[in-house]
Each structure stands twice: as C-alpha cells, then as structure tokens.
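#lab-general

N.A. 3:47 PM
ok so I finally got the sequence cleaned up, no stray characters, all 339 residues accounted for. can someone with queue access submit it? mine expired

B.Y. 3:52 PM
send it over

N.A. 3:53 PM
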Amino acid sequence: MPTWTLTTRQLHLNYVWKISRNATATKTNLLLRVAGQGHQGIGEAAPNVRYGESPELLAQQLAALQANGLADVTSLAALDTLLAVQPAAQALRFALESALVQWLAACAGQPVWQWLGVPAPARRVPTAFSLPIMEPGEVAGFLRQQNAARFELLKIKVNQAEGLGLLAEVALALPNHSLLVDGNEAWTDADAVLQFLEQAGALPGLRMRFLEQPLPADQAEDYRYLRPRSAVPLLADESVTDTADFAAIAQQFHGVNVKLMKAGGFRRGIDLLRQTRAHGLTPMLGCMVETSVGIAAALHISALAEVHDLDGFLIVKDEPFGLVGEEAGQLCLQEGKAE
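B.Y. 4:20 PM
back already:
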C-alpha cells in the first residue's frame, strides 16, 4: 500500500510576476509524494486564482481524499473512481495523477513518456521565456539582466493600457525577435484588439508570432469575429481548460495553449494536445509558475506540442529540485534531488 505525503512550499520569485489580473513576488505550491515498493513519484500543484484555486482549498481537498481511501489507490482507474466521489481542483488532480504515474512507471521500469504511450521527448526542448508586465523604462535592463536573447521566442505579458509601450521597448532592444504576446483576457472587445494589432504592427522591429487570449474566455462571438481579421495567429489559453468544444475553438483561434495544471492530469492534457492538432490548430504546451517538478512532468509529453512555454521554473528563485536544466534557451530532463 503506497504512502502519500504533502509538502507546502512557498516559492520566492526572481522578480515580481505581474500579469493583467494580478501581481506577486511569491507563490505557494503543493508537492505530493507517493512512495511504496521501493519506488516513489512526486507531483506538483500550482493553485491558480483564475480557476478559484488556493493552497488552503487544495490542502482541504487532499485531506478529504485521504480520509476517503487515497492510501488504497494503486492505479489510475482507482484514482478516477475516488475523484468521481470526492472532487478536487484541477491543479490537485494533476499533482495526484503525476505522482501516481511516475510511481507506476518506476514500478514498471519505464520512463514516464513510455508508460503513457506518447513519443519520446527531444533531448533538448526550446522554450519561450516570459516577461511580466513592467514599466517600459525597465524593459531593456530586464532583458539584459535575464539574458533573454538566448530564447528563440519571448512571451510578453501585456495589459490594454501599457501593452504598446512594452512591445515598443522590446522591439527596440531586440529588433525582429520572435514574440508571443499574452493578454490574459485584458481586452473587452474585438475591435479594441484589432486596433492594438494595427498599432503594434506599425512599431519598428516588432515581430509578433502569436497573440494569446486577448479577450475573456466567455466572449466566443467576439473571437469568431476577431479570428479572420487578425493579422496574427490567436492562441487559446483560458478558453480551454480540461474540456473544450474543439469545433467551436477552431472557429475562434489558430492554436491552443494546453497546461497540465488546468487540464487536471497527463491524460486530459494528452487528449487536448491531440485534439488540437486533429482540428488543424497549433498545439502549444504551457505552464504556470512551477518548480522543475511540474516542468519535468510536462517535458515527458512535450513531443506532442509544436510550441513550448515551459519557463515557469526559471521564475523561481533558488529553484529547489533541479529536475530540469536550461542552456541556450533549451530544456532537458536531469537527475535532480526532488527532496
């Protein structure tokens, strides 16, 4: 019978992580470990306020799961049965499934990707690197300090008020660098987004590759209007969580950012990436602010995505686990300590 243990980690960040809806210098994540038969697995939950999650809620839900038989779970089918009667937030579901899959794979003597039945990850996986919202005058110094030019793709967090100023400074510091602009639902209507795109397109040296989730997820009609008019491919993020109507999504976006934390597990994430590709959309694999525990899990299924935004652990100051290395903007799995 495996043993489950929970550790709460307050993560200090290298800089203030500001997006259109909030800002923070710390993040509290939960680490779940399952051990037995000489093997172990560890999963990470990164609660996200956008989906009504908090560390306290997830800890309460885990306690309820333990009281209702989590210790008896030794298969994914048993985990599904338990979660059907004792629901849990998506981030916690991912931590549970990730830890259990790692343990089961270790018991079977297989790498996680093989146990899951997906293609092997590349030895090195290029990742985007994200810039939080900041004062335009801080951009050039931030880019130099972080040596951001080593990443092939830069992800720029923007809001409606300061987005153009940030992009102008990035284009000035790194002209013609490939950019993914992320609005995190900051705009309110499609015409305002089109105006922003027109103004951004006039900025010297700006090369925008994607625009991610500029409008709230519930504005499907606006997205249907925006999609054929946008000069830049649109990526869904908040519009696709653990489920989606992909026929509808294909009328609103050109690609999908799949995150295992919001998908609620490997299996849902794999299915979402496959459905994305099947509907002719660009599959992207993203993350929250996570340690290398969560990022390493994502790397195991990274061959299913065309674009990777897995820099969450690079935001964490003194990242504690060392399960993922980064060199020249590319990620690789490593033997870390996972303490």
